[in-house]
Design a protein that fits this description.
heterodimer, A: about 800 residues, alpha+beta, Aldehyde Oxidoreductase, domain 4, seven-stranded mixed sheet, five-stranded mixed sheet, 21 helices, 30 strands, about 30% helix, globular, B: about 170 residues, Ubiquitin-like (UB roll), DNA polymerase, domain 1, 2 domains, 5 strands
């Protein structure tokens, strides 16, 4: 809506961006890698405990059914079986699993009375080996009474009676209907020169990491305490909720993270798997490992993502976008883990990089008999990017405009930041024309346009896509609750903090404890580079470890492209305290006052006289062992250590009627993706000829790993756009629950050389001006590819309104267009 | 159903990473489980257990194979190599060095299988073309990287191995 500088006064930035860095901004090789390369990384399945038993789960073959009876007698009699547990038995000791939905939508680690999707867990076996556990699963006899199955989200709106999944929430499968209006919506549409309308369909795809979810749980009868190893994130944020499910106080559960073999959101917070493993451990008296197999993971893990049907309108006045209004039906599947958070998230960047004055969303979230949604790289905002860019492309087509010029004209201008969009969220910084120009230059956009024209004369269909879109980073937790129904309890301002602990040992080495796990990102490398910068240390002198919940500080963990920004904040706080201690102790050793000292090149020394100084190791030794040789000072204790919890850098409350959602996702990344593809109109196959992605993630801590995120994210975005889709048939059977059928891109499906560029506009709110960059690739590729394919098929007048762009879909679009022309 | 537990054990004798092992295994025991659980070689990861992703790739008599699609009993007399045969944290194999240098991994889960595919290629073809590398890497799934840095890493590894051979 407008530039708003008032927020700059609220900036808590301690470390402004610098002209030059020693470690930040360098392509440092990753600290994590040696052990991963040597096969020595400890992932969940590598955890082995004495006397550990193994669990397997019986899953529902029906999409919707009442469980009439479960006969476990044969399974129990199988030698080697330790425990067989049904949903009803589990519910006697363990309550519903953690959920963030309001009103609640109870879900159990083993289904109770009713199954609501194919693959839902019905019973579990603990046995001496996984083999025996799976043998026993086959011996469990379940009697079901089938119920009407709801698969189509538009049909779900009309469900009543037995077709309703959660009758206790009312006689409907509509989980929520909510309309939010921001700015002069009616006025903008009444005054429009053109109103562009599109119906769009975003497919159900999933994060699908190569490692599934798992937990190894044990229960100590002596202390009444659970120990749970799991590949989950958010264990130091909401891990205590697992204790609530287990009906024990939270100090009786210790969660120990393992390395996660990829997450992409799907391991944001495991609830079913660790709750089940712990329940089985308590009942069997044995440590229990439960690791999903691939079928478990594809059918029942929380990695299914947004599944949306849009009816959208864009108002145009004098060639400028003024308002967007959309109706969206989102198929959440059978349960609601994160409430309507993906729609809250999408509203953080609902106007894209453009100057809009109004926005309207009518959301209908429905339950169907499918696996529930979880988080996946973009968390709903990648879909919003698709919507905004499809509308922009439709406007360009209708106005006969140029894709670059139209965007340049509609962009928020570099001098207009910080900028508040109609929903109330703030965009902290950006230079969108620069990103677009850099992408166009890197691609040689005019050159490709000429090649496209020449190719078309030869009967070849080359298309160039342009997508300019947002990557909001660093979430404030308000997005998880502000869409809750009016009658639901609101909160005062929530944070999503990140902590760190740092100590310098007597030999001068730094030990950093992170309070969030590794899940495929580079937390150790980020922390090493940032701390080395702060303390002027050699990165080789810094070690990293991960806390468990017993020792953990607040740690929200990776997700929403937040970790690098947040750990930089935490480390800035901790390093400030460490530096102060180093200078204080160094001052006593050097008999100089602290104001005359500086920390540089790993030494505390007198300003202007670096030869008069002590190394960090010398100061550390003194601080650890010779405290009493220094004057009495209650603040001067032995050792050098600090903890710091960094809160969200800038967030404000939504207002009561939600006409202003407040600032909740202000650290705004941006990107321009330009793929060049060729469509074989005979087969519908798409081939990449070139691909350029230019991103702005503020100050880059490690350009090499950031490029890795952009390329890897783009690869998964290409999967979403062209190959992936969870196909449920009308009976609710998931038809492609294997890697043979659910098509993750292999190398051959991706561009040979995905060329990247960077523009650095610096955040005025975060330490060093860093912005997040973990999700961007996936948030830019789908709209860019839709545009490219539409551009390639322009001679046919084909419109791309639905993903994935499978050969079959393209062939049917081409056939339909060709026959309508005859 | 008691027959399930009366399955006869099979005696196998095989060489893994240069070390001779004699074991009794159930005929149905997967090679991946045998390596990971019976021999403690947890560097070999299991991604899909149906032979698509290549995460569990090992070297069986000099050729890569999916350890999740083999029974340990089939490997009697075989010579097997796993990621642990390549190098250690302190003394990496040139392929591992190259993956580190070129950022050929992120979560690291597919990496051991990817390294074995690379090792097979470079043992058979020390100077592969870019197309040959792409062909070899395409047998494995990676969800993190987009593969480009993996291809660069294999190219770089070929150079490193040649340079080492030339002293």
């Amino acid at each position: 809506m407008a530039k708003d500088t008032s927020f700059l006064e609220k900036s808590r930035q301690v470390e402004p961006p610098r002209e030059a860095y020693k470690w930040i901004g360098k392509d440092m090789k990753r600290v994590e890698d040696p052990r991963l390369l040597a096969g020595k990384g400890i992932y969940l399945d590598d955890v082995q405990l004495p006397k550990m038993a193994h669990a397997a789960v019986l899953r529902s073959p029906h999409a919707h059914a009442r469980i009439l009876s479960v006969d476990t007698s044969k399974a129990k009699n199988l030698p080697g079986v330790i425990l067989v547990m049904t949903g009803a038995e589990a519910a006697e000791v363990t309550g519903p699993t953690a959920s963030f939905a309001s009103p609640p939508c109870p879900q159990y680690c083993l289904a109770v009375e009713r199954v609501r999707h194919v693959g839902e867990a019905v019973a579990a076996v603990v046995a001496q080996s996984r083999y025996l556990a799976e043998d026993a699963i086959d011996l469990i006899e379940v009697e079901y009474e089938e119920l009407p199955v709801v698969v189509d989200p538009l049909e779900a709106i009309k469900s009543t009676g037995d077709a309703v999944l959660h009758p206790e929430r009312g006689d409907s499968n509509v989980a929520i209907e909510r309309t939010l209006r921001f700015g002069p919506v009616d006025e903008d549409f009444a005054n429009a020169d053109q109103v562009i309308e599109r119906k769009l369909r975003w497919p159900r795809v999933g994060a699908v990491p190569l490692e599934t979810c798992g937990a190894v749980a044990s229960y100590d009868e002596g202390t009444g305490k659970f120990t749970i190893h799991a590949n989950t994130s958010m264990y130091n944020y909401v891990g205590w909720l697992i204790a609530v499910s287990l009906n024990v106080p939270s100090h009786r559960v210790n969660i120990i993270p393992t390395l996660a073999g990829g997450s992409f959101g799907s391991k944001l917070f495991l609830h079913k798997v660790p709750t089940l493993a712990a329940t089985l451990a308590r009942a069997s008296g044995r440590p229990v490992k439960f690791l999903e197999d691939r079928l478990d993971n594809l059918m029942n893990c929380d990695n299914h993502a947004s599944d949306r049907v849009y009816n959208a309108k864009l108002a145009i006045k004098d060639g400028m976008m003024t308002g967007i209004s959309f109706h969206v039906v989102d198929d959440y599947g059978a349960y609601l883990q994160f409430g309507y958070g993906t729609h809250g998230n999408a509203l953080s960047q609902a106007s894209g990089p453009y100057k809009l004055s109004s926005l309207e969303m009518n959301l209908v979230a429905v339950f169907t008999n499918k696996c529930q949604q979880g988080a996946y790289r973009g968390f709903g905002s990648e879909v919003m990017n698709f919507l905004v860019e499809r509308l922009a492309d439709a406007a360009i087509e209708e106005l006969g405009d140029d894709p670059l010029e139209f965007r340049r004209r509609n962009f928020i201008k570099p001098e207009e930041f910080p900028y508040r969009i109609p929903t109330g969220n703030l965009y902290d910084s950006g230079d969108y024309p620069k990103v677009l120009d850099e992408a166009a230059e890197l691609l040689d956009y005019p050159g490709w346009r000429k090649k496209q024209e020449a190719a078309r004369k030869e009967g070849r269909y080359i298309g160039i896509g342009v997508a300019t879109c947002q990557e909001r980073s660093v979430f404030s937790a308000t997005e998880f609750w502000f869409l809750n129904p009016d009658e639901a309890q609101g909160f005062t301002l929530t944070s999503s903090p990140e902590g760190v602990s740092v100590k310098i040992d007597p030999t001068g080495k730094a030990m950093v404890t992170l309070h969030a796990p590794f899940w495929g990102n580079s937390p150790e490398t980020m922390a090493t580079q940032i701390l080395a910068e702060h303390l002027t240390m050699d990165p080789a002198d810094i070690g990293i470890s991960y806390s468990d919940t017993d020792s953990g500080l607040n740690g929200t963990g990776p997700g929403g492209s937040r970790y690098t920004v947040m750990i930089a904040g935490a480390l800035t706080g901790a390093a400030g305290k460490i530096r102060e201690k180093l200078l204080t102790v160094g001052g006593h050793m050097l008999e100089a006052s602290v104001e005359d000292l500086e920390l540089a090149d790993g030494r505390v020394s007198v300003k202007g006289a670096p030869e008069h100084g002590k190394t960090i190791a010398e100061v550390a030794l003194h601080a650890h062992y010779f405290r009493l040789s220094m004057p009495d000072d209650p603040l001067l204790t032995s050792g050098i250590d600090a903890t710091h919890v960094y809160d969200h850098p800038l967030t404000t409350l939504p207002n009561g009627d939600r006409t202003d959602l407040g600032v909740f996702y202000p650290i705004m990344g941006h990107m321009c993706h330009m793929p060049v593809i060729e469509v074989d109109i005979e087969t519908g196959k798409i081939e990449f000829l070139d691909y350029v992605a230019v991103h702005d993630c503020g100050t880059m801590v490690n350009p090499m790993t950031l490029k890795g995120h952009i390329r890897g994210g783009t690869a998964s975005g290409i999967g979403t756009a062209m190959y992936e889709h969870f196909y449920y048939d009308e009976q609710g059977q998931l038809l492609n629950a294997s890697f043979a059928d659910y098509l993750i891109p292999t190398l051959h499906e991706l561009p040979v050389d995905l060329r990247t560029g960077h523009v650095e506009t610096l955040s005025p709110f975060t330490e060093f001006g860093i912005k997040g960059g973990g999700e961007g690739g996936r948030m830019g590729a789908p709209p860019a590819l839709a545009a490219a394919v539409e551009d390639a098929l322009r001679p046919f007048g084909v419109k791309i309104d639905e993903l994935p762009l499978s050969p079959r879909r393209l062939r049917s679009l081409i056939r339909a267009a060709a026959s309508s022309k005859v | 159903m008691s027959s399930v537990t009366e399955i006869k054990q099979v005696r196998i004798s095989l060489t893994v990473n240069g070390e001779r092992h004699e074991h009794e295994v159930e005929p149905r025991r997967l090679l991946s489980d045998f390596l990971r659980e019976d021999l403690g070689l947890t560097g070999t990861h299991v991604g899909c257990e149906h032979g698509v992703c290549g995460t569990c790739n090992i070297m069986l008599d000099g050729r890569t194979a999916r350890a999740c699609l083999l029974f340990a009993a089939q490997c009697d007399g075989a010579e097997i190599r796993t990621v642990e045969s390549l190098g250690t944290v302190d003394k990496m194999h040139p392929i591992q060095e190259a993956f580190w240098e070129k950022h050929g991994l992120q979560c690291g889960f597919c990496t051991p299988g990817m390294l074995m595919s690379a090792a097979e290629l470079l043992e058979r073809n020390p100077e592969p073309s870019s197309e040959e590398i792409r062909e070899a890497v395409s047998s494995n799934l990676c969800r993190c990287t987009g593969y480009q840095t993996i291809v660069e890493a294999v190219q770089d590894a070929a150079t490193r191995i040649r340079e080492q051979a030339n002293g």
